């Protein structure tokens, strides 16, 4: 397993180098789909998109439950808030996740793989559970009323927080850049399908096109030769 993790790490670093040394990729991703740290803080942008816009929140590091407290999770973050920042952040976090998986695999103790949790005692109990997922923090608050058999749970997932920010990120960008901006947020389309439809309708209705934006054909033209540089 450790050997497999090393191989994946090498592939991820190669992909990152390809992105960072691509003049066209850097030009399109930089300053595209930007969410400022101020707007991200005001509207509660979370997870990957939030950390790329100056919101350095990670449940694994901020509230470390086992085994994260022993592993020492390294936070990643940027302040540019554009597509390039989100791409760089995803590379950082993939490599950090691989490091954590390797550390867990090498230090895994012998014993049971899973163990049942004890039932909650008493009435009127409220409990909260949080974890850092692929798109950001997932929070679930559950409660049980004093009336027997009555219970409720309230989940909160990143797309509910991050989805509305996409329509702010696309403002001022050309229409063909919408898929690039949208995917850089890592949206959960099943739960936010109506929101995506609303955003697409708004794009079509308003145009949301820069007056000086190049046409798609010119945008895809070969870039002039330049020395290889990193973003």
Strand and helix map with partners:
Layout: H1 2-20, H2 23-29, H3 37-43, H4 47-51, H5 59-62, H6 68-71, H7 83-107, E1 126-132, E2 137-144, E3 151-156, H8 158-169, H9 178-184, H10 193-206, H11 216-219
Antiparallel strand pairs: 1-2, 2-3
Helix pairs in contact: 1-7, 8-10
CATH names the topology as Cytochrome-c3 Hydrogenase, chain B
**Which CATH architecture?**
Orthogonal Bundle
List the uncertain runs: 208-226
Order of helices and strands: HHHHHHHEEEHHHH
Describe the structure.
This protein is mainly α and 231 residues long. The protein has one domain: Cytochrome-c3 Hydrogenase, chain B (Orthogonal Bundle), CATH 1.10.645.10. It is 47% helix and 9% strand. The chain has a 3-stranded antiparallel beta sheet with strand order 1-2-3. Strand 2 (137-144) and strand 3 (151-156) form a beta hairpin. The longest helix is centred in the middle third of the chain and has 25 residues, at 83-107. The two termini are 33 Å apart. Residues 208-226 have low confidence and may be disordered.
Salient structural properties:
3-stranded antiparallel sheet, 47% helix, Cytochrome-c3 Hydrogenase, chain B, 3 strands, mainly alpha, 11 helices, 231 residues, flat
Summarize the model shown:
The protein has a single domain, classed as Orthogonal Bundle (Cytochrome-c3 Hydrogenase, chain B).
